[in-house]
């Protein structure tokens, strides 16, 4: 009857003719049946009934609709309240998934329900809620989730609604292993804080099992699940902050109690991993040395460390998907989320702490940077303390060397001078070859001993900062000229000057020693094989105020285990008697005092480069004037020799007398003054006075003052076995020149002749 009634309110049915239908509303029809021939009366009655019943029937319909709507709203409010109450008690992600799945079952009659969340505990998506799956199906679903619809939803943020998996190529994906075949699916993203953090879905073996009602219901559940996930993440961050505070304190205590930061770094990294609950924590030094992390992890380039140091946020965070500074985008890199902060030591980048997650689940931010900085600051402080302690130990060693030098230098040089002088005098009159060789060995041994004392004195006391600029090219040229005669034939000395005008405000002799000691060290590194030592002078690539002086060899390289000891006093890898062990110590001391730095690059079998960075001085307007030719060492003037040591006095007197001079000897200050007064009375006062510095009654400086007060105008030479710490006082007193013991006969003769010939 409903199918035959048209849009009219009243109609008669053709068969039987006595049946009349009255449409009360869309879903309700009233039928009247009468005897044959009563149709006209029935139609009239029906029309009257329509006029009377239309309004009441319409009111009843609206009432029924309102009642149904009210019931739906009450049901919806009850469902919302139930969902809110259920989600408010959730404590972790796993229970969140189970709760949402249970709520989905309450609202929909489904065969399979699941919720996937990105999880730091596994490399795959984690199935945190499910219905209809046994254990092995859950494991397989997690393993393949990234390649199926859950992974697609999380990657793209799109809804996947598949009515028939066999007839929907745009949404087709790999299907996980199941006991039954899935024919329809409905997956929606779970949003939290503007990010897709999971996927909520239903599945069925029936085609077209899900409609728009399911989509709307899943959106509602997904939104609430996302809000709950945010709450769980905030609680997790709070718990992480609490763990970090405790762990950073423990790390600081560990580092404070350690002699070396390397001894505790692995334990500190363990504390970082446990407090962050991360997959890996690493420390990477600026020199490439790394601690922590599995061996399979990618190496971290220095460009990445520089980018971390340059970050205005105090560190870098990444999600593993975007390009990472310093890494080749086409090569293996950090493929998971990470946070990295710099480790600073005395304002310089020393390395970085890098925390990596197992996948891209965890999103690091400024709070992660701040938390990791607590550990980085403790490490940097410990490294700085270790550096300062190392410098203090080095300074203490230098002080010990200075005390040693001050204690033995004078007496030691007094012993060496007679050996050197007498062996030289004997050699002058010796003709037998074997004896000449023995005398030559004696002289060589004495010169080496004198050189040792001189290096000790230089190391402990000599001032290396000069008032004038020293041209470094001239220093290199002089060093090569001095070293070339003693360089073995299998070693070639070369210079590579790219910055010929470079200068620095350093003492020329000190800089010469730096180059000589580095070249000597390089020659030794080449040993018996053919090789080349190259001395380079270059501009700093980034700083015009710095000049680079490099000494490079192609020897065997420096073993890693001895690099920290290279600059220690008396440390040497040479055979006994082949070196003093002070060469690199002097280099370090001079460069440090000049405000420079030393870098060492060495590879076993490839050679070594010592790179010295020095502050650049002002360019010189004119070339350095070459030294005048050496004068003849001989003469016939009168010389007064003063020394309290009888052996040294006799040696000095004989040495000067052998040069043709007329010698007067005095064994102390009082005796010298008496000799001077007597000579003045006889009008034959000395032309030059040569006096020792250290004497028991009065030293050589006091003697100088007395002679000047008595009117002596000639040159006074102070000869000493100590360093030059008395130079200023001696100059003020009137000393003309200071000479170091022991000194060769010809050198002493040249010095005396030069002073005597000097115009007044």
- Helix coverage percent of residues? 40-55%
Please give the domain count.
5
Any idea of the CATH topology of the largest domain? Answer: Heat Shock Protein 90
Output mean pLDDT. Answer: 78
Shape by Cα distribution? rod-shaped
SSE class: alpha+beta
Strand portion: 15-25%
Radius of gyration: 49 Å
Question: Would you mind describing this structure in some detail?
Answer:
The protein is of the alpha+beta class and 760 residues long. It folds into 5 domains: 10-73, no CATH class; 91-234, Beta-Lactamase, CATH 3.30.450; 237-387, Beta-Lactamase; 462-615, Heat Shock Protein 90 (2-Layer Sandwich); 638-757, Rossmann fold. 45% of the residues lie in helices and 20% in strands. The protein is built from 17 helices and 25 strands. Strands 5-4-8-7-6 form a 5-stranded antiparallel beta sheet, with helices on both faces. A hairpin with an 8-residue loop joins strand 4 (112-117) and strand 5 (126-131). Helix 2 (93-107) runs antiparallel to helix 5, helix 6 runs antiparallel to helix 8 and helix 11 crosses helix 12 (583-593). It is rod-shaped and about 185 Å long. It starts with 9 loop residues before the first strand and ends with a helix. Mean pLDDT is 78; it is low at 575-579 and 623-629.
């Amino acid at each position: 009857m409903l199918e035959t009634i048209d849009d009219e309110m009243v109609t008669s049915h053709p068969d039987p003719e006595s049946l009349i239908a009255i449409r009360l509303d869309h879903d309700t029809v009233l039928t009247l049946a009468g005897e044959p021939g009563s149709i006209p009366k029935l139609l009239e009655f029906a029309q009257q009934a329509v006029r009377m019943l239309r309004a009441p029937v319409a009111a009843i319909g609206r009432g029924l609709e309102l009642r149904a709507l009210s019931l739906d709203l009450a049901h919806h409010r009850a469902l919302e309240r139930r969902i809110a109450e259920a989600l408010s008690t959730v404590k972790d992600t796993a229970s969140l998934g189970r709760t949402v799945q249970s709520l989905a079952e309450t609202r929909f009659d489904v065969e399979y329900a699941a919720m996937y969340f990105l999880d730091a505990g596994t490399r795959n998506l984690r199935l945190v809620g499910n219905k209809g799956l046994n254990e092995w199906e859950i494991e397989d679903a997690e393993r393949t989730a990234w390649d199926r619809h859950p992974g697609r939803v999380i990657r793209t943020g799109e809804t996947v609604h598949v009515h028939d998996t066999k007839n929907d190529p745009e949404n087709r994906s790999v299907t996980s292993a199941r006991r039954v075949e899935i024919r329809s699916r409905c997956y929606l993203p779970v949003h939290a804080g503007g990010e897709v953090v999971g996927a909520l879905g239903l599945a069925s073996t029936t085609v077209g099992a899900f409609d728009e009602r399911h989509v709307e219901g899943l959106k509602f559940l997904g939104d609430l699940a996302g809000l709950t996930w945010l709450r769980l993440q905030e609680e997790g961050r709070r718990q992480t902050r609490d763990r970090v505070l405790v762990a950073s304190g423990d790390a600081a205590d560990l580092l404070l109690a350690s002699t070396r930061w390397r001894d505790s770094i692995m334990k500190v990294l363990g504390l970082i991993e446990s407090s962050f609950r991360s997959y890996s924590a690493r420390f990477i030094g600026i020199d490439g040395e790394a601690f922590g992390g599995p061996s399979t992890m990618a190496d971290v380039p220095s460009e990445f460390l520089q980018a971390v140091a340059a970050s205005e946020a105090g560190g870098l965070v990444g999600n593993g998907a975007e390009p990472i500074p310093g890494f080749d985008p086409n090569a293996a890199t950090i493929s998971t989320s990470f946070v990295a902060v710099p480790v600073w030591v005395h304002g310089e980048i020393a390395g970085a702490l890098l925390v990596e997650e197992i996948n891209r689940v965890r999103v690091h931010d400024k709070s992660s940077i701040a938390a990791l900085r607590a550990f980085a600051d403790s490490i940097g402080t410990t490294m700085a303390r270790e550096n300062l302690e190392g410098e203090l130990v080095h300074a203490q060693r230098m002080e010990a060397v200075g005390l040693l030098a001050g204690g033995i230098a004078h007496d030691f040089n007094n012993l060496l001078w007679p050996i050197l002088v007498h062996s030289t005098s004997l050699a002058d009159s010796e003709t037998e070859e074997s004896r000449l060789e023995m005398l030559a060995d004696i002289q060589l041994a004495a010169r080496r001993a004198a050189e040792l004392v001189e290096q000790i004195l230089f190391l402990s006391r000599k001032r290396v900062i000069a008032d004038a600029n020293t041209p470094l090219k001239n220093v290199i040229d002089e060093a090569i000229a001095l070293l070339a005669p003693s360089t073995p034939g299998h070693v070639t000395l070369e210079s590579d000057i790219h910055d010929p005008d470079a200068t620095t405000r350093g003492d020329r002799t000190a800089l010469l020693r730096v180059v000589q000691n580095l070249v000597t060290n390089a020659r030794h590194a080449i040993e018996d094989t053919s090789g080349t030592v190259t001395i380079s002078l270059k501009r700093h690539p980034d700083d015009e105020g710095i000049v680079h002086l490099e000494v490079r060899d192609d020897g065997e390289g420096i073993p890693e285990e001895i690099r920290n000891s290279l600059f220690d006093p008396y440390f040497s890898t040479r055979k006994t008697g082949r070196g003093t062990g002070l060469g690199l110590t002097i280099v370090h001391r001079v460069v440090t005092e000049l405000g420079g730095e030393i870098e060492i690059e060495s590879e076993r079998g490839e050679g070594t480069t010592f790179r010295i960075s020095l502050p650049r001085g002002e360019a010189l307007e004119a070339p350095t004037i070459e030294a005048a030719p050496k004068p003849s060492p001989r003469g016939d003037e009168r010389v007064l020799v003063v020394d309290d040591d009888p052996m040294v006095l006799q040696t000095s007197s004989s040495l000067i007398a052998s040069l043709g001079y007329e010698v007067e000897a005095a064994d102390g200050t009082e005796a010298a003054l008496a000799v001077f007064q007597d000579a003045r009375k006889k009008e034959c006062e000395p032309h030059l006075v040569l006096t020792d510095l250290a004497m028991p009654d009065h030293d050589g400086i006091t003697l100088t003052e007395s002679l000047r007060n008595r009117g002596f105008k000639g040159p006074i030479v102070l000869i000493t076995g100590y360093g030059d710490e008395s130079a200023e006082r001696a100059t003020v007193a009137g000393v003309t020149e200071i000479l170091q013991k022991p000194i060769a006969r010809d050198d002493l003769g040249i010095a005396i002749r030069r002073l005597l010939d000097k115009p007044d």
